[in-house]
Design brief:
By secondary structure, the chain is of the alpha/beta class. It folds into 2 domains: about 40-110 and about 330-545, Zn peptidases (Aminopeptidase), CATH 3.40.630.10; about 125-320, Glucose Oxidase, domain 1 (3-Layer(bba) Sandwich). Helices cover about 30% and strands about 25% of the residues. It has helices at about 5-10, 55-60, 65-75, 90-105, 210-215, 215-225, 240-245, 275-280, 285-300, 360-385, 405-410, 455-470, 490-495, 525-545; strands spanning about 15, 20-25, 40, 115-135, 135-140, 145, 155-160, 165, 185-190, 230-235, 255, 270-275, 305, 310-330, 335-345, 350-355, 355-360, 390-395, 420-425, 445, 470-475, 500-505.
Length: about 550
């Protein structure tokens, strides 16, 4: 991967001011004013569900059963597959199982390599050792501080006798923490965000809206790199929350797309530190520190200060290139075969940590199994003389738990032109029932259906009323949803490129990302009903006369 590509890859794992790693250029996501549906659609149960088995889609939707789903999931979420971590043997076993099933169904191999595999190279990064001592006091990684191996280069061991406090680490025409300061080879300490006046207006924008310096920490880290800083310490007021929100990136090796072993990093090495570490650095100079902070906030003037703190740092990083695979199977269409409907799910999970296996029965063995059974029903329909008009690409991707990497790779290296891709139907966690619906499992959360196409939303509603009549809950489709699920599953790699996408989800539970996410807790009857609904939506997308329209910005 070229240096420019490395820059793009790093931008796509930006840490925002709320402490979440958000994927795929959230900083450049299109600005929209629409208020997306966040309500609940309860079907009109006074109207009968269509059960006429002479209707092909009714007949073959009914072929999606709890027993079939159990058969798949009992393999995919078994201990033998060791949690299916990307790049590990269990992940390879899962890919082989899916590919063999596609062959058994007779789906076409889009790659034409005889495997149904779309090979992907990943760079696996991990800390061989990372330590931080301040004034002789040892601080603990993933407790007192945190540093991501994918975003830092190998620095080995080094020491420093002082830390320069540099305000917010900003260098803009209207406000600069760097003016008149030399940070070459130094350790600097900065705060997140940006300075504001007493009326909450930003010194940078002149408005109450924050600038990119607040939303894009990499902008600060790039300046620090360009200015020659050796290490940036970012004070994180809520480090424990930050750790929790990023836990999926802290379990096992961290992955990036491509071979990055020879690429120079474009941002400075950095650590997120607790306020306890910051206080240890400041030491007896707290009055001086407070005076500097007041100067910044009251007058918008930055004044650096070198705190005499002794640091001993180790950032010993190990990197290697590993291989993974997306698994693709195509059911060719008839008169509209050049138009593609993608049905996706990720089959990877968190793997094995010591003796504990993260089986990922719900996340996302449930989605994987559902896509396999949907594929089977479509193939049976085609063999019965009812092939879809549009082609359907069944796509099981790897690397989702590492940052949506498998679907990102496909979107950057599509087998079929993205302009011919009509929609993505994504299935991620549909086998459990959350607390909100403990009394009634006949539901599914729907995310993204109306964000890029009103047609997609209407189809989802109409197919449900006519054929399945489950509760469609759009709670997490709210653009103000703090969970930001719209950005956190593989559909987003299509949506971010203007392709309408709909994401089906059952909500989280106490076993989410825990070894206790096991098959015995799956509600297969509920899972089958959701699978049948997804089948009907996909059938309509594949067979309607006109492809769904995309909303204009």
């Amino acid at each position: 991967m070229k240096e420019g590509d490395m820059k793009d890859a790093l931008i796509k794992s930006v840490v925002n001011t709320t402490g979440n790693i958000l994927f795929l250029s959230l900083l450049v996501i299109q600005v929209v004013s629409a208020q997306y549906n966040s309500g609940i659609t309860k079907p009109d149960t006074t109207q009968a569900i269509s059960t006429d088995m002479s209707i092909p889609q009714v007949k073959w939707a009914a072929d999606i059963t709890a027993d079939d789903l159990y058969a798949h999931l009992s393999v995919i979420a078994s201990d033998e597959y060791e949690g299916r971590e990307t790049g590990q043997p269990g992940n390879e076993k899962a890919a082989d199982y899916i590919a063999q099933y596609f062959k058994t169904l007779g789906l076409s191999d889009p790659m034409e390599n005889g495997t149904h595999f779309q090979p992907i190279a990943f760079t696996s990064s991990r800390w061989e050792e990372t330590t931080l001592h301040v004034n002789g006091k040892k601080f603990k990684h993933l407790w007192d501080y945190m540093t991501f191996p994918t975003q830092n280069e190998d620095l080995g061991a080094f020491a420093a006798d002082e830390v320069m406090f540099l305000g917010y680490g900003i260098d803009s025409p209207t406000y600069s923490d760097y003016a008149g300061k030399d940070v070459q080879g130094k350790v600097i300490m900065i705060y997140k965000g940006e300075p504001t006046r007493s009326d909450s207006t930003s010194y940078i924008t002149g408005k109450k809206e924050w600038s990119e310096w607040s939303t894009n920490v990499n902008k600060k880290l790039k300046v620090a790199k360009d200015k020659g800083a050796k290490l940036v310490l970012i004070v994180e007021d809520q480090l424990k929350d930050f750790l929790f929100q990023n836990r999926k990136f802290l379990l096992g090796p961290k992955l990036d797309l491509g071979d990055l072993t020879q690429v120079d990093y474009w941002v400075a090495n950095h650590m997120y530190i607790s306020t306890s570490i910051a206080k240890e650095i400041i030491g007896t100079k707290s009055k001086k520190f407070k005076k500097i902070r007041r100067l910044i906030e009251k007058k918008g003037k930055s004044k650096g200060y070198n705190f005499p703190a002794k640091l001993e740092v180790v950032m010993d990083k190990q990197m290697k290139v590993i291989e993974g695979n997306n698994v693709l199977g195509l059911l060719p269409g008839t008169d509209k075969a050049d138009e593609i409907i993608v049905v996706s799910a990720h089959y990877d999970h968190l793997g094995k940590k010591g003796e504990e296996i993260f089986n990922g029965a719900d996340d996302n063995g449930s989605g994987t199994s559902t896509v396999l059974d949907i594929a089977e029903s479509f193939v049976k329909a085609a063999n019965d003389g009812n092939a879809p008009r549009r082609s359907i690409l069944f796509m099981l991707v790897t690397g989702e738990e590492k940052g949506l990497l498998g679907s990102e790779y496909y979107a950057e290296n599509p087998i079929y032109p993205l302009e011919n891709t009509v929609a993505d139907v994504n299935v991620d966690m549909v086998g459990r029932v959350d607390k909100r619906y403990a009394h009634d499992p006949n539901y599914v959360y729907v995310i993204g259906s109306d964000r890029l196409s009103k047609d997609l939303h209407v189809i989802n509603e109409e197919m449900n009323q006519k054929y399945t009549q489950i509760i469609l809950d759009y709670k997490y489709n709210d653009e103000k949803d703090p969970n930001r699920y719209y950005y956190r599953s593989d559909h987003y790699n299509f949506a971010s490129r203007g392709i309408p996408a709909i994401f089906y989800f059952n909500g989280t539970h106490e076993d989410y990302h825990q070894p206790s996410d096991t098959i015995d807790k799956i509600n297969f009857d509920k899972m089958a009903k959701v699978g049948q609904h997804i089948f009907h939506v996909t059938w309509e997308l594949a067979n309607r006369d006109q492809r769904i329209e995309v909303l204009k910005n």
